[in-house]
Amino acid sequence: MNSSFSKIINSNERVLIDFYADWCGPCKMLAPILNQVKEELGDDIKIYKIDVDKNPRIANKYQVRGVPTLLLFKDGKTVWRQSGVLQKKDLVDVIQAH
């Protein structure tokens, strides 16, 4: 697996990974929502986007079958995951709960 990805998810901060694809309509809808989440939470969350077409090994390791799929990591462990588009409030609530 990509060592920089391991470093990212193993930080002691909460890390939200957005598995997406350029051709995916819902992924495009999610992008501005993620920007709003980052604006609201600031340094409380790190958000990274992983293109499943360019990073198939990482997508396979986390069994990403559809996009967008969001995974929330804390201390290197997946604490939450969901496929599909979520609204900003729902995402903020999930992140703050962890």
Q: What's the SSE blueprint?
A:
Blueprint: H1 3-9, E1 15-20, H2 25-41, E2 46-51, H3 56-61, E3 69-74, E4 77-83, H4 88-97
Parallel strand pairs: 1-2
Antiparallel strand pairs: 1-3, 3-4
Helix pairs in contact: 2-4
Characteristic key phrases:
redox-active center, four-stranded mixed β-sheet, Thioredoxin, 98 residues, transport
Describe the structure.
The structure is a single chain. This protein has one domain (3-97): Glutaredoxin (3-Layer(aba) Sandwich), CATH 3.40.30. It is globular. α2 links the parallel β1 and β2 (46-51). It has helices spanning 3-9, 25-41, 56-61, 88-97, and strands spanning 15-20, 46-51, 69-74, 77-83. The protein has a 4-stranded mixed sheet, with helices on one face. Helices cover 41% and strands 26% of the residues.
Largest sheet: 4 strands, mixed
| Arrangement of strands in the largest sheet | 2-1-3-4
Rough outline:
globular
Total DSSP E strands: 4
β-sheet strand percentage? 25-35%
Q: Roughly what percent helix?
A: 40-55%
Number of helices: 4
